[in-house]
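just leaving the lab so this will be short. what follows is a protein written twice so to speak, once as letters and once as structure tokens for the fold. can you read through it and tell me how you think this chain folds. thanks a lot i owe you, the record is right below.

___
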Amino acid sequence: MASALDPRLPPPGTYLEREYKGRHVVVKVLVNGFEFDGEIYRSLSAIASEVAGTKWNGFLFFNLTSTEENPDGKE
């Protein structure tokens, strides 16, 4: 699980939002996880994979990586 200390994450209480195939996805950053659709998840990747129906890197899905850290978009 990515902890709240991960520098790519905004502080707890922040909402992450994105559109995905016509669906408005809203996730709340918690101290030890993430809230999505009334459920608590341990990782952004779990949420991204559920929304997309396939495996996704949560930081990429929510655009929380910089192009300097990840210039080719791959892990």
